[in-house]
Amino acid sequence: MIPTLLGIMVLNFILIHAAPGGPIEHMISQMQDTSHQEAGGAKAKMIGGNSASGEHTTWNDEVLKDLNKRYGFDKPLWQRFWHMLRQYCTFNFGDSYFKSDSVAHLIFSRLPVSLSIGLWSTLIMYFVSIPLGMAKAVHNKDHFDTWSSVFVIIGYAIPSFLFALFLILVFAGGNFWSWFPLRGLTSSFWNSLSWWGKIGDYVWHLTLPTCAQVLGGFAALTFLTKNAFLEEIHKHYVIMARAQGFTEKAILIRYVFRNAMLVVISGLPSLLIRIFFAGSFLIEMIFSLDGLGLLSYEAVTTRDYPVIFGSLFLFTLLGLFFHLLSDLMYRFVDPRITFETQS
After folding, report:
1. Do 283 and 160 touch, CB atoms closer than 8 A?
2. Pairwise CA distance, residues 185 & 166, whole Å
3. What pTM was computed for the model?
């Protein structure tokens, strides 16, 4: 995990610095816009063309030199990367260039939103898709399998953001009912509620975003589970178990489930990363939730390097942890699996 993390950080550092534009250019652009707004059109008419151009260039050069020195851009690239690595060893991500706050505080203040959406979406997907996929495999090609496939495919064909807008229109104060809130993770009076009231308010705010997020990965996981179970059901050990007198339910749970779930577990890390961070950006924007997806997008558009690198470091670290968790789940589902070198 350590060399993988280091290699990803090196690659991200090089690619981001190689991209056109940067935080200094963005700062100068903001300062120029502010200066033009304050000066107005009258000041532009009072300054001659040649002299104004020279003053403008000199002002930019002085500001550029000061900003490069202040943020360390006057140092070689390898020195800046080494300084970043030493800071990250103690989880010191530095300060944001544009938000006047530390990167660690920005990330961890928005982490509960992304974790809430990602955690509950993943749990609902697995607790619904796996039993449904098992039932479709057992009743393959009958009416239940056909009609459930129709509904699952229709759900898969609808984009998550479009379904989110539909939920808002119907259930969040649109043209029909106003049953659910439209903004935030909790209500403004959340601190004054009891424990049960806080849990209910939390679930109340998360219902629509979670439903919209579940729709995207629901169909893929259902069909993956169905195909994995179908492949195992037709293998020889299932025929032997039937010959020994085991019931279909016992065969499915005791034998088939353990082998078929290995395929499903293998896709868990990428699914979690996609749901937690990449897939939640549009959901966060639509439901006005300040999560990591929205924070990362804002950092990329403004070239806020500390926030970009801090977010990528956290995403990579969690991704590696999820892969490790997937390997441990392999051993839990099937203890016969070993990662030791075999002669």
Report:
1. yes
2. 19
3. 0.72
